[in-house]
Amino acid sequence: MFRKTALLMLLVMCLTPCAFADETTVEVSQLSQDSQPDELTLRENAVTQKAAELEALAEQLASRESKLVQQEKDFAAKARALAAEDRKISGTSAILLGRETQMSKRELDLKAREAELARREMAFAQESQKFTEASSALSGREADLAKRESELAGREAELNAKISAKEAADSLTAREADLVKREAALTEREATGNRLNALEAELTERDKALKEREEAVALRESSVSETEKKLAEASEQVNAHEAELAKKESDLNAKEADIAGRNQKLTEATASLAERDSAIMSREAESARKSAELQELETLIKELPAFDPNNSTEAAMILTYKIPAQKRRELIAMQREAYTRYSSNRVTQALESYTAAFEAEPTANYLAAYWAGLSAERLRNRRDDALMWADRALEINPDYRPAQELKRRLEAPARGNQRRRTR
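Above: the chain's sequence. Below: its structure in token form.
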């Protein structure tokens, strides 16, 4: 862009003497023939020197922009790596949380089982108490029975002494009945002893089962302790990894701050160059001769076919916009990027890029609106959008012939079919 400007200024400088020959005939006649070539040579040298300075400035800005783009790419790669590490940490944390939930559930099950075991132990203690009470009651009954038997024996002895020989048969019959009763009582006592033995065996088996359950609970407690130990070790490893990631993040933030500082320095340098450029332009504006040359340069740019603001579709036409130079450069870059997508048949992306370029300067960038209309025309069912973009371009520049042709082309089928266009 700077080379083209310098060449155009050189062309203007060469054409200036011819342009001013008719207007300043009296002044030229007063000058000597030797002074005119010297003045022209000085002006040509000044223009050449200025073009060289502008070209060097453009090369410096291009190199700085390439460095800045490379630094931004490096920072984006580091940010993606940090995001991947964060996702890994999140997955590990989720796994640990799931394990902790499982351990909590197992601990609750173990507590429930321990409570059930305690309840069963309580029931066993109650049954043991009942058995003890039954045993003590049975012992009391046996003592009473022995006492009654001794009393009965004494009474039998007394009865035997008192009973006569006549009553021996009756006494014998009564004794036989008593013996039958005693045998029945002894049989009942043996049955009770058998029941007690069976209950004792059952209690022994329950005691054995209880001991086995206690051993199983002890094994589970040791397993839980080992699992808690492993979980603590894993938590320590995660904490160490998080500390390492925090350190890397701080290093990345420091590098980001460094890049931001460099960007600030580059911005300041660019602003300083812009200030110097504006100072040079202001000094040039102070001269009436250079002001006339700039006006002739703008006239020449408008007269060139490639820069015709009413007919050209090239990105260089943005130079004719009455907007700041930095804004013109940004719009040209956006226009070229969008055209690259358009020429490679990425029409949807091209439409998005042209829309962004138009929204960056909606009061002047009718070229982006025209190309957005072309992109929408190539898409299916987007004819109304294309016509809307053509209208936007014509609102900014009603004399823009490509937009007029696009509008006529889009409205032709609608008029032939008598369809009604809706937005």
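DSSP finds ten helices and no strands in the chain.
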